[in-house]
Amino acid sequence: MCSEPELSNVVIKVYPEKDSLVTVESGDMIQYDVEISTINEYVKRFKIFSFDAFQGTKTYIDSICGNDKSLAYKFYYEAPDVDRDSLSIELNIEAEDNLGNIATIQRYLLIKSKNLHILQLDGIVLYNPHDNNASALSLNDVTQPFIFNESVDSLKPDVYVQSTPDFSKINLCSNEQTMFVRNNSFNYVAATARGISSVYESSVKENIIQDLNINDIILVGYYNTAKGVFKVNNIIRDNTNRSCIQLSYKEIK
Fold first, then answer.
1. C-beta of residue 105 within 8 angstroms of C-beta of residue 91
2. Which pLDDT tens digit goes with each residue over 8-20?
């Protein structure tokens, strides 16, 4: 618990007690339970405000109190949407008693943005598995496809291709933990972490995408947690062992 020393005229206690940096995502709600007391006649005023490089100083509460020596207050802080990857915020809780004695304590937050457009990984190629080329990948590193039959760890191939020998029918398959959502109305170009998560979490998920086509958009995740979104840019069919799917991917970090 972080508070002013017990001999202070004004004492502020805040729960949760952790006063080190707390990381949250934009839109998250954090509850603070505030207790304020004075050894003098009454708490005159209390104030909650924040400071950061994006919004400057923002006041949430600036209240004149009654004639009580102590008060309790529940404060709900909603992490703001920001125009950058992350933002450091100092949250201040300040109280003053009837004699003008003032105490202030801080809480520190790091806001991670959910709304920024995320970087795209291009040049991902999965080949016809009948040609003994790389036809599988792990979501831990989609840029390094591998031959499905050569995977030692059964969980490593999060995504792999099943097809007819001539590549005329292509299915995208997954292991037990990896799930797909095909949604060709999803705005891939403007995809954000929040948008991917929202659509994935609210959709019916499956382990197989049948009859894969050019321009298919496939959201992917582990069980109910979204990991990213694929777009099928091209499907090449030939008889020279080079039949393949060309993909791009946007990953939630």
1. no
2. 799 999 998 877 8
The backbone torsions φ and ψ at residue 153, rounded to the nearest 5 degrees and listed phi first, read -90, 120
Q: Looking at residue 153, what is its pLDDT?
A: 59
Using alpha carbons, select from 184, 78, 67, 172 the residue that is nearest to residue 126: 172
pLDDT tens digits along 52-106: 988 899 999 999 998 899 999 999 999 988 777 788 999 999 999 999 999 999 9
How many angstroms separate the CA atoms of 236 and 130, rounded? 14
In degrees rounded to 5, what are phi and psi of residue 114? Answer: -95, -10
Report H helices in the chain.
193-201
Question: If you search the block for the tokens 């929202």, which residue do you land on?
Answer: 198
Q: Lowest-confidence range among 6-10, 119-123, 124-128, 134-138?
A: 6-10
Opening angle at CA 210, ends 224 and 151, nearest 5: 70
Query: Taken in order 236, 242, 243, 245, is the CA torsion positive or negative?
Result: negative
Are 29 and 85 in contact by the 8 Å Cβ rule? The answer is no
- How far is it between the farthest Cα atoms of the chain? 90
Residues 6+ apart with CB under 8 A from 87: 52, 53, 54, 80, 110, 111, 113
